[in-house]
Amino acid sequence: MKKILLILSTIVVCASSAHAKLSVVATLPDFGSLAREIGDDKINLVVLAKPTEDPHFVDARPSFVVSLRSADVLIDGGAELEIGWLPPLLQNARNPKIEIGKPGRVQASQGIRLMNVPANVTRAAGDVHALGNPHFTVDPIIAKAVAQHIAQSFSALDSANAAFYEANYKKFEATINGKLQEWGAAMLPFKGQSVVAYHDSWPYFAHRFGLNIDVFLEPKPGIPPSPSHLTEVIAQMKARKNKTIIVEPFHDRRIAEKVASATGAKIVDFAEYPGGLPNSETYVKLIDALVARLSGALK
Ligand SMILES: [Zn+2]
Question: Residues 42, 177, 150, 271: is their CA dihedral positive or negative?
Fold first, then answer.
C-alpha cells in the first residue's frame, strides 16, 4: 500500500510539474491543419468537422461540447461558415477562455478582406454566404495570415514555447512562398479560363490563380440545384465552352454527372479540406492536389 501511494504521489507531482499542452479545438480541418503546422507536438488538437463534411451543415456530436468546454484555444472561421451548428455548442460549453476577444479565440477571418460581400446582409432564400464568402483558406496567401494569427494566440497562451511557434510559422511561410511559384507556374497556362462549380467555394482560389469560377450548379449558396436553374447553367456552359465542373465530396454527384453529360464537361473532384482527397493530409499537399487536378482537367 505504501509503495502504491508513493507511486501515485510521484505521478501527481510529475503531472503537475510537467508543462501542460495547449488544448486546441478547430472547427474545420483547414484550421486544424494550420494549427498542427504551428503547434506540432506541443498541442492537443481536436478537429470537429470531418474533411468530407459540408462545413455549413456539420453533424454536431455530444463530444464536441466536451472538447469545447476544456479548450484553451478555439479556431473558427468568424465569417458565419459555422453559424448553422457552432453557436449552440458554444452556449452549452460555457467556456470563458474561448469567448470572442480572448487570446484563446482565433477567428480566422479577422484581418481578411472577404470577397463577394452582398450589398445588403440578407439570408433571404437561404443564402448561406450572407456576410461575404467564407471559404477563404484555399488561397495560400490567406492561409499564411491565418497561420500567423494562430501562432500569435499560441504564443500568448504558452509563452514558454513562443519561440517554437514563431519558428514553425516562419517555416510554413517559407514553404508557402516557395510553393506559390510552383503552383502559379502550373496554373499560368489556364489564366482567364472559366470553370463551373457545384457550390461557390472557390473565389479565393480562382482569384489567386487567375481563373473565373463563377457559374454554379446551386442557384444560391446552400440552395439545392433546381431543374430550371440547371437548364440555364447548361446553356451558359455550352455558350462559354466550359470543360470542367468542380464537385466536393458531400455534393450530389449525380446532378453534376447529368450536367457533365449534357455539356461534354469533365467532373473534377475537389475538396476544401486537408484529408478530403487522397494524399492531401496537410495544407500544402491539399493545394498540390487541387492544382494537379485542375491543371490536368483543363489541359
Ligand atoms: Zn459556402
Answer: negative
Residue 22, strand partner residues: 43
- Any bridge partners for residue 212, and if so which? 194
Closest CA to 211 of 180, 179, 244: 244
Ligand 1 centre distance from Cα of residue 83 (Å): 11
Q: Cα separations (Å) of 65 from 61, 85, 86, 145, 188?
A: 8, 11, 10, 28, 45
Which helix H or strand E contains 231, and what residues bound it? helix 227-240
Tell how far the Cα of 184 is from the centroid of ligand 1, in angstroms.
25
Distance CA 31, CA 135 (A): 12
Å from CA of 80 to ligand 1 middle = 9
Cell representation of residue 56: 455549413
- Tens of pLDDT, residue by residue over 110-168, are 999 999 998 876 666 677 898 999 999 999 999 999 999 999 999 999 999 999 999 99
